[in-house]
Input
Amino acid sequence: MDREYERWQCVCISISWYLTSAHALGDLCGCHISEGTVVCWVTEAAERLEHTVEKIAEWMSVSQVQHADETGVRLAGKLHWLHVNSTRFLTLLAWHAKRGYQALEAIDI
Output
């Protein structure tokens, strides 16, 4: 997947998601958690999971039976597509501005 496109996706996630998450975590933990902390956690998790996501994609590419689906979602007010590809044991999710073959090729599904 194109690194610049992945970074753009992160930028497009609405700050309201971070605010909501920070408030929910603060309520659950009984303390104040800033939006910046949530952003750092999400960024760190994405970095740590990058190799795992690549491995899942690799394993899925050799699977004989897969289920594929896509659903429309709004990112920064624009329609994008959440592509889901799964086997009995694995699930891979990927965002893309397009749907269909063009998107599947771009995200390597």
